[in-house]
């Protein structure tokens, strides 16, 4: 029993316990309890409050089967994350993991997007595609705007997919889409700066400082087969150079090492997209990724504070909690 914070007579304690049992065990209303005990309803309300404060009534939360709240809390606490959402998947198949994580992310977004959110969206990610495909159109507006934060990566077909991703999320949230009509990587810093001076590009880029939510995939240094086949702009020599510099993964083509520190390379001057500083200034940064192939990148992303909300699979979460790669 908790230590008493106030002194009560035996009669007061007896009535407090009686009122608490009527309310919590017999499901009686406060008005009915007041009539039964011949006291005012306000007094019953005070008794019920005191019963909780004094430890007479104790509330416990029992997580139903299929939820992973303890593991979610443990991972969040270890890495200083705002929230962790885990999809309990009994598979190592990458396609199944992507779909399962996408479904979990869709559920999270449907609950937490409030209608006024300005959402930044990276242009290419299998998990993001799975997420928006799993979301159901709402009858009410759940986002103010959906803003592309990096140009389409790769060949023209990929840029069409990037536009489709933003368009689909805008449709299900009823937010206003803001497309970035440009490639994700250009040949030089001068080329990037010239594109940023284009009025249409500049208008979208200005929105990056006003985002309150960022929705991103987490890439490994080794591209997925889907991304490689789609015309990924980084060739083998670029990737080998990044790996030699210690890169393990990226978010929006900003590559980081195993501790989450930005890897310096000329690529940073050629990316047409949100800067690392702008990313870190976004209040809620949601990363959606999982699977053994991406473990090192996911761990680095949370350690480096690139994201503060993680949506992943159970095996990845267990590995993060134990700090042992799968």
Can you describe what's shown?
With 326 residues, the chain is of the alpha/beta class. Helix content is 45%, strand content 13%. The protein has 14 helices and ten strands. The strands form two sheets. The protein has a seven-stranded parallel beta sheet with strand order 1-10-9-5-2-3-4, sandwiched between helices. The longest helix has 19 residues, at 94-112. The protein is elongated, with a radius of gyration of 25 Å. The protein starts with 9 loop residues before the first helix and ends with a helix. The mean pLDDT is 87.
Summarize the structure.
45% of the residues lie in helices and 13% in strands.
How are the SSEs placed, and which strands pair?
Blueprint: H1 10-24, H2 30-37, H3 41-53, H4 69-79, E1 83-87, H5 94-112, E2 118-121, H6 126-134, E3 145-148, H7 156-173, E4 176-178, H8 189-196, H9 199-207, E5 213-217, E6 219-220, H10 225-229, H11 236-244, E7 247-251, E8 254-257, H12 276-281, E9 284-288, H13 295-303, E10 309-313, H14 314-322
Parallel strand pairs: 1-10, 2-3, 2-5, 3-4, 5-9, 9-10
Antiparallel strand pairs: 6-7, 7-8
Helix pairs in contact: 1-3, 2-3, 4-14, 5-6, 6-7
Helix content: 40-55%
Alpha carbon gyration radius:
25 Å
Number of strands: 10
Strand content: 5-15%
Count helical runs.
14
Helix/strand/pairing category: alpha/beta
**Global geometry:** elongated
Taking pLDDT < 50 over at least 5 consecutive residues as the criterion, the unreliable ranges are none
N-end to C-end Cα span: 43 Å
What's the order of the H and E elements? HHHHEHEHEHEHHEEHHEEHEHEH
Mean pLDDT: 87
């Amino acid at each position: 029993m908790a230590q008493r914070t106030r002194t009560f007579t035996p009669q007061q304690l007896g009535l407090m316990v009686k009122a608490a049992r009527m309310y919590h065990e017999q499901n009686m209303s406060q008005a009915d309890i007041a009539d039964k005990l011949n006291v005012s309803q306000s007094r019953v309300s005070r008794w019920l409050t005191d019963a909780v404060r004094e430890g007479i009534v104790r509330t416990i939360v029992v997580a139903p089967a299929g939820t992973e709240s303890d593991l979610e809390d443990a991972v969040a606490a270890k890495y200083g994350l705002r929230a962790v959402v885990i999809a309990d998947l009994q598979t190592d198949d990458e396609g199944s993991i992507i779909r399962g994580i996408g479904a979990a992310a869709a559920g999270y977004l449907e609950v937490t997007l409030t209608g006024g959110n300005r959402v930044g969206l990276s242009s290419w990610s299998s998990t993001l595609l799975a997420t928006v495909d799993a979301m159901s159109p709402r009858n009410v507006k759940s986002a103010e705007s959906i803003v592309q934060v990096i140009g389409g990566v790769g060949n023209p077909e990929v840029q069409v997919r990037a536009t489709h991703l933003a368009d689909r999320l805008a449709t299900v949230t009823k937010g206003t889409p803001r497309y970035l009509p440009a490639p994700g990587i250009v040949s030089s810093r001068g080329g990037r700066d010239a594109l940023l001076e284009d009025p249409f590009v500049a208008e979208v880029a200005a929105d990056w400082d006003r985002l309150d939510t960022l929705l991103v995939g987490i890439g490994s240094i080794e591209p997925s087969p889907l991304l490689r086949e789609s015309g990924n702009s980084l060739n083998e020599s670029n990737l080998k150079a990044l790996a030699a510099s210690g890169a393990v993964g990226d978010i929006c083509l900003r590559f980081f090492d195993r501790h989450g520190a930005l890897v310096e390379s000329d690529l940073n001057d050629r990316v047409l997209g949100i800067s690392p500083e702008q990313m870190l200034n976004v209040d809620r940064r949601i990363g959606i990724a999982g699977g053994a192939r991406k473990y090192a990148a996911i761990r680095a992303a949370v350690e480096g504070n690139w994201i503060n909300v993680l949506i992943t699979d159970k095996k990845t979460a267990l590995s993060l909690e134990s700090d042992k790669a799968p």
